[in-house]
Amino acid sequence: MITTNEFNKLTKDKRVKYVLTHKHANLSGANLSGADLVGADLSDTDLSGANLSGADLVGTDLSDANLSGADLSDANLSGAKLIGANLRRMNLRRTDLRHADLICANLSGADLVGANLIGADLVGTDLSDANLSGVDLSTTNKRGTCVDDAGFNVARDFVRNCGVKGGLIVYRSRRSKHVGNTHYIPGHTYTAPCASWAIYTKCHPGIYACKSIEQARDYSANVVKCYVRHGDWVPVPGKGCIRCRKLRVLSEVVE
Question: Domain segments of the chain: what residues?
Fold first, then answer.
């Protein structure tokens, strides 16, 4: 088994192309920043706490690898195999995960701000408490995750079967503040391209709204009044607002 110290000695020379097989290796805490690991087999490897920032991991096999606490910011993981990998609470800011295989991976609490997940396979992936601010999930396979539309479908069926009718009057900024540039116009209905039903997670996809005008004005002076049906929204912890799958804009709020 290659040790962390041995691998760190190798990585001092950035010209080395790391296509060796390090399956089952113990690389906990290793400094692999900027390393060329294209196509390497790192399955079942302990990479906990490793520095992989800026590393080239295109097509690398990281199945069942332990990456908890590792830094993968700015790394290229396009086409990488991450089936069942432990990515809990990882720094994945601006990481390239295009077409990566993340089936049943653990991304709970991970920081994915600005990450590229186009075409990624997220079936069964744990995204609870992950920061997905600004992440485009429209082309990913989300089946079995908290951003799968099936979750809201179940919620709506439950509400309907319980005989609950109606919805909530809520308020939000007239324009999107953090993701996109949507202008919310009275008389129109808006559906989030992707919405999360994870009730314990703050920064997940969806249309955000507040239960009072005062709260909405903390985000913008220009506020619109909206209606959201029960079953199409979940509470957001700590923010005093809700996350919606769909809402209808009723009117602008006039001073």
Answer: 1-145, 149-252
Q: What is the pLDDT of residue 23?
A: 61
Phi, psi of 104 (to 5 degrees): 60, 20
Q: What is the pTM for the complete model shown?
A: 0.69
Is residue 89 within 8 A of residue 71, CB to CB? The reply is no
Across the chain, mean pLDDT equals 84
Assess if CATH 1.10.10 describes domain 1-145: no
pLDDT of residue 9: 61
